Amino acid sequence: MSKVKICDGELQCLDQSDELHCPTRKVNVPHCEEDKFVCWSREQCISKKLLCDGAHDCDDGSDEDICEPRERCQMEGVFLCNNEQQCLNVSRLCDGKRDCRDGTDEGGQCEAAKTECESGKCHHICTLSPLGASCQCQPGYHKLMNHTCRDIDECESKHPPMCSQVCQNFPGSYKCSCHHGYVLEEGGKCRVNGSPPIFLLAHDGEIRGYEMYQNRSLASSADYTHLYVKDQDKIKRMALGPNQLLYFSDAGHKKVYSSHLEGEWKVHSQEVINVGLSDPEGIDVDWSTGHLYVADSGRGEILACLGNGDMCTTVVSHLHHPRALVIDQRHRQLFWSDVGEPAVIARAGLDGGGRIAFMSDHVGYINVMVLDQTTDCLYWVDNLFLKLESVRLDGSDRKILMSYSSQPFSIAVFEDRIYWTDLNQHGLFSANKFTGLEIQNEVSEIFGHVSLIVMHPILQIPESINNPCVGAKCSHMCLPTVEEHRCMCPQDMHLENNMTCKISQQVPRIYLGAKQEILQFPLFSVGYQDYQVRTVIAGSMKNIPSMSVSQRQQTLVFSDIRHDVIARVNIFNESRLPSESIVYSKNLQSVEKLEVDPVTGNIFWIDVRKKTVEVASLNGNYHTVLISSDQIIQRLTSIAIDVTNGVMYLSLVGVNPTILRCFLDGSSCQPLAVKVYHPNDLVLYEGRLYIADGNDGMVQIISIDVYGLSRFYWSTLHWQGNGRMLKRMAIYGNTIYWTEDKETSLFSVDVQNSDEENIVLHDTPPLMSITISSPDETVETACSINNGGCSHLCLPVSGGSRVCRCSDGYLIQTDNTSCAMCKEPSCQCEAHRICSSTTECDGFVCDEGHCLPADVICDGATDCEDMSDEEESRCSDATPKDCEIGSFECDSGECVAEHLVCNGFSDCTDASDEGWHCDVDECEENNGGCSQQCVNTEGDRECHCSPEFISNITSCVPPDPKPYFLFLEQGSLTRYDLNSGGDYVTIGFPDTFLAFDVVMSSGDIIGITSTNPETLVRTNQIDQRKEVLLSMLRRVVNVAYDWLGKNLYLSDIAKPALIVCPIDLMKDGCLSLLHEKTGSVALHPMKGLLFWLGDDSIQMSTMSGHKRRRIVEFDFALMSSSLVLDQFSDRLYWIDHMQGVIESCNTDGSYRRIILSQHSQGIYMSFLSVNVFGDHLYFTDEKTQSLYRYNRLTGHKTVLTQHLYFSLQVKVIQPLLQSPGSKSTVCAQKSCSHLCLLSPEGAACACPDGWDIINNKTCISPHMALSATLKTTEGSPRASTSPIPPRASSSPIPTSQCNLLCLNGGTCSYSQVNNMDYCICTPGHIGTYCNEKEPVEDITPGPREDSPAVIGGILLGSLFTTILIISCLCYLKHKRDNIDSSEIIHFRPLFLKRNCEDVEELLGEPPARTAPRNLDVDQQDETLSASNMEGHCRLSWQYSSSSVDSAFVSHIDENDNLTSQLLPSSQGM
Predict the structure, then answer these.
(1) Distance between first and last Cα of the chain
(2) What distance in Å separates the CA atoms of residue 409 and residue 237, rounded to the nearest whole number?
(3) CA-CA distance, 698 to 677, in Å (whole number)?
(4) What is the DSSP letter of 929?
(5) DSSP state of 1344
(6) What are the residues whose beta carbons fall under 8 Å from the beta carbon of 311, sequence distance 6 or more?
(7) Cα(1020)–Cα(829) distance, rounded to whole angstroms?
(8) What is the pLDDT of residues 389-416, one digit of tens each?
(9) β strands within 163-279, DSSP E
(10) Per DSSP, what are the bridge partners of residue 275?
């Protein structure tokens, strides 16, 4: 149009745009925003996005009429006018009205069209048109070529689908519905009926629940989340099971855990699968059986396990790297991804059957999948092609929902949306699950690998799905199949008769030797350790340093150095605990290492004490020494045999540590040219010699090629063992397995990846030895057939040959194969040496052929293997003879060597050498395995518990409530409560603490604050109010509360001193028990014992400081932070930071042993504090910042809580720990005024330093006995009130010599004149210990005119008093010099009245002496009292054998100078 027509008041443009934006509108056009279209009616504004969409949005249809007619009229049901400027709906054609401007909508073939429609030309709708009749279909149908209509299936053809879940098609229509638990909303959407779900997100070792609101938004802050799991390492994946059971895999620990989601958001995590996993990735749960499925990428397997993890079976094997795993619950199928080559999504039944490649085209790295049970769709994220895809479970309708450039880690589906966590964008996102559109950020700032699942009851399996394994007769495991079920076995068993599992001999097994048992573990089994580790044999053996197994012989051979025997046991015995049989026991002293020839079963061993290498047949009938002690100078440590090449390797330590190579017959020994320092163990495996070098902290792996007799070729590979003491090792494949000294774990490392150390087994008994049975033993030697033709021992040597050797007492014959009895006298007597000739035996020939000395016949000891030397027919007439020195006489009259007595084997025919006198005190070792009291009985022991505990075999279970813990972390106190599921409560207190103890009856906390100076305060956990008990302390490092005596014991390292104070009478001072540096203190009030850590020892005394002695000595100054007592088992525990161990001993110092070391279970720890209660030891670790619970009986260790920062003190709080029991009245009966100090015999009263005691109960203050006081000038330091005031010239002396405890900043000083200590107090404090505040004096001035007189009077009075005091002192000194010290009489006022100022005037002559001399200081002297007239003082006097008050000495150390300060006052009286 021409520009001149713009804004001319006439509408030229169909969209009215020529008049819309004019400065002055001349046409009535409604005001619309620029992104709006004005309908021609001028009454509507619509969005321009709605233009030309085929739908009339304007009431007049102008939003479609303005469109390009040709383009718009391509749609069905519209007509293009001939002028090509208008497009009309077909309903406007042939209606008798001209709608086209050119009238082409009328006329033409309109009449003919009417005829055709009336004749039924069309199936549904017949439309008139100038061009003729046309056919259309009703909504929900589409037209076919023959003018017929077919129903449209809306349930299949729409994207996105018309219905969220269930769609039913009807002719011309459809119906949407939802699964049970959902409600249908507008638009065919389904929404969960009831409460919204909780999204579980795992990250940073925690699992938190994010609630979804009704508007389908998520809580975006961690403050509004629920904490379900904490203190984990690296949570990889999660899965929900029946009964609110949450499973999760921990990639750091290589374990699977479970948590019951019960109560108010409380969980209790426990290990489900803790052995055998390599790299657990995807996990899911079969809800019908409760089985847990795990995809292990490291093993290349998919495992099915019982819900409790006891046993697992492999359902899919030989995979590359299985990652994601989901279960189709309804169809009993398993889907997983394998990121190997080729990458694939595969499917199989839950038993592994029917395995197929489900998706293989264009599949990359799929680490996560999720299955939507409401739509039967599988979703996955492909990190190679960077896409989110979906497909139906029948393989159809594969779609790419979205492409992305970030990195999703986990996905979940709920209702119509798919959710995912993103590693790069650090959040939780969602989108429409059908289109991938409508992306929303649900939660932000979630960092790291965040696993995601949705928790809601509707997502659980419907109850209508039955468990096909109900009623199945499977011996071990039943797995569902698509049709029915299938019995399966754990990895170390095989299936017989389709139902029963039997032990498989084709599975490699690790055998572990502990002190009193041999354990067996299938090498590659997966499950729960307590179920997988089984006992082969237990009870009869003691200390098993070496084992070896022969797969061909189905035999395990082991040495027992406690009984000095070599024994064997059938390793495939079907019974639970097969019995062992003794192979060889003659003259064994210390068999530290043995190995079995897998072909012949011959046993080779080293005897460390004898320095010999020996061999015996598997049945023990033949034995000989291969290398004798005169050939071995250094100490033997290990042996390894190579039967293929006929050689053995020996490790020796000493001046020149060496590895020797010898032929198996002991000949041709040569050293290997390899540098070793302290070789502990040797293992030969597949042509490689493994050398464990304890001193150098490594394992050397040497490849050895034996060519001929002397040529060696080797290469060396080092693995650094982190300086730990490897004890014994075994090899299988490329993996080294080993045990460590005093450790309770089995370790492993891959030779090709030595940086990654694994803990195979944990919390085992301390392991001493290890061996592995190999099912693929195929070794053949020259001895394989018919024992190589040898009559006794066949020993393979190099070159495929063999050497025959004869047993002791036999001689090899000229054929070099057969053996004849030894007949030379020189070889008869000493250890059955091999004979060198065939002369006749002049001694006794056993029926089995041995030649023995004649004097062994009928000597009561069996020397012939067939016992023919002691046959009754031969010995009935023999004259009995006395046993020689060093022999034991059996009850039957036989004589056996003393070292055979009580060795666990009967050497006397009547077994009297193993009789009642051989009873072993089982309580000696580890308290007999008892938690508390162990009582030795004949042949056994009994475990007993304190009455308050519940006895459970060896365990003592405390009653409720569960204990709670108080931690001291950087001065603040935190409470951790087991009763509430592990809640933390910070005890708010303004000051920080250095040490504390708890009054458990009230919950009061008594602690030393870190203020300067320190203060002893009391507070309560509830009101947390502060009460100052003592102030102006120096360096008190320990507080211990005596709940029977109601006293506090304080360790002051500044004075130094150990003091005891009455908690309710702190103002009266404390009693000094020790004048030395003491560390941690432990009290045993029930037995009246006191324990403390010194610099180089642990010492004990009564709680009054008497009967002191050392019970544990240290070789160096001890660095310790904890000394605790288990009062129920009478054992002490402490941390030795120098050695990095927790140690223990009985309260008398006996049975000292290491409980835990800092390298425990392969994890370096740094112990900070320790405590004990019940069966458990509790300790904090600085490295992991965790509180551990350690079972003293089983060795099991559990992390209770983490994030404890430098917790130097942990207290276990439980009422039993301060229960008075039978001693509840021990102090009440004494009626002590101040201190009641306990002892094993009972209790005694005592007084604070400087106080005197009368009638064995009451303490009298020094300034109550004498009224003399000393006051100094205002503002200057003043001396405390004392019986004799110190001279002003006295000065402080070193604290190591001054023993008085001065409080509130007072300084201890010493008076040489009076030979006593006293306190110089700071202004504002008075008292013997500066423990009282000075009363405020009235300083109001009087009349000025009287002041000179008053001052003069005071000066004269002071002068007179001074002269009088000096005179008295001189007189007292004269009298003291002339008094027999053995006859000194001490006087003390019993009751003080106000008018008794001049005590001396009331004293008469003492009564006649009635008490004997030299009374024990622990006894109270007989006291006689004299009463004077009413109103006078009642006094007491005592006869004493020394110049020191015995009652005072009874509670003061004999070197305490305070004991002398009462002497002058006694003489003065």
Answers:
(1) 139
(2) 10
(3) 10
(4) G
(5) G
(6) 305, 476, 477, 490, 527, 528, 531, 532
(7) 81
(8) 999 999 988 999 988 877 888 999 999 9
(9) 166-170, 173-177, 182-184, 190-192, 198-203, 206-211, 225-229, 235-241, 245-250, 255-260, 269-273
(10) 527
* Residue found under tokens 């320990």: 1038
Which residues contact residue 844 at a Cβ distance below 8 angstroms, ignoring those fewer than 6 apart?
851, 852, 853, 854, 856, 857, 869
Percentage of the chain surpassing pLDDT 90? 26
| 1011-1014 long-range contacts, CB within 8 A, separation 24+ | 1013/1305
- In the chain, the amino acid numbered 1141 is V
Cβ density class 1025-1036: b for 16+ within 10 Å, e for less: eeeebbbbbeeb
State the DSSP H helix or E strand holding residue 965, giving kind and residue range, or none if neither.
Answer: strand 964-969
**How far are the Cα atoms of 513, 566, 570, 597, 782 from residue 616, in angstroms, in the given order?**
21, 10, 18, 10, 18
Q: Reduced to 3 states, what is the DSSP secondary structure of residue 948?
A: coil
3-state secondary structure of 4: helix
Among the listed residues 719, 748, 716, 718, the one whose alpha carbon sits nearest the alpha carbon of residue 731: 748
Q: Which of 558, 595, 569 is nearest to 681 (CA)?
A: 595
pTM greater than the 0.70 cutoff: no
Structure tokens at 30: 């409604």
CB 471 within 8 A of CB 256: no
How far apart CA 997 and CA 968 sit, in angstroms, is 11
Asked if 1041 contacts 998 with a C-beta cutoff of 8 angstroms, the reply is yes
SS (H, E, C) 1237-1288: EEECCEEEEECCCCCEEECCCEEECHHHHCCCCCCCCCCCCEECCCCCCCCC
> Angle at CA 1170, nearest 5°, toward 1168 and 1172?
170
Per-residue pLDDT reduced to its tens digit, 678-718: 888 999 988 889 998 876 667 888 887 654 333 343 444 44
Say how many residues make up the chain.
Answer: 1469
Alpha-carbon distance 309 to 613, whole Å? 46
**Helix (H/G/I), strand (E/B), else coil: 615:** strand
Are the C-beta atoms of 398 and 354 separated by less than 8 Å? Answer: no
Token digits for 296? Answer: 């292990």
The better pLDDT of the pair 1104, 458 is held by 1104
Which parts of 721-853 are beta strand (E)? 726-732, 735-740, 746-750, 753-761, 769-773, 793-796, 802-805, 810-812, 819-821, 844-845, 851-852
Q: What pairing do the DSSP bridges indicate for beta strands 399-403 and 387-392? A: antiparallel
- The neighbouring-strand residues paired with 658 are 652
| pLDDT, tens digit (0-9, with 9 covering 90-100), for 1328-1381 | 667 676 665 443 344 444 445 545 666 666 676 777 777 666 665 555 454 443
Q: Alpha-carbon distance 1024 to 812, whole Å?
A: 91
Residue 282: name the closest of 339, 215, 219 by CA. Answer: 339
- Nearest of 302, 688, 303, 778 to residue 506 by alpha carbon: 778
User: Which of these, 986, 1020, 1027, 1023, lies nearest to 1003 by C-alpha position?
Assistant: 1020
Tokens coding 1435: 């006094």
Enter the tokens of residue 1424.
């006689």
Please tell me the distance from the alpha carbon of residue 292 to that of residue 1323, in angstroms, as a whole number: 76
User: In the chain, what is the greatest distance between 2 CA atoms, to the nearest angstrom?
Assistant: 162
Distance between CA atoms of residues 1075 and 201, nearest Å:
59
CB-based burial label for 112 (10 Å; 0-12, 13-18, 19+):
middle
Alpha-helix residue ranges (DSSP H) falling in 175-245 = none
The answer to whether 672 and 660 are in contact (CB under 8 A) is yes
Cβ atoms of 1382 and 1401 within 8 Å: the answer is: no
Q: What are phi and psi of 955, to 5 degrees?
A: -90, 150
Neighbours of 686 (CB within 10 A): 10
Strands (E), 341-386: 344-349, 356-359, 366-372, 377-382
Of 796, 890, 822, 895, the closest CA to residue 855 belongs to: 895
Tokens of 576: 């639970």
Residue 230 pLDDT greater than 50, yes or no: yes
Mean pLDDT of 190-199: 86
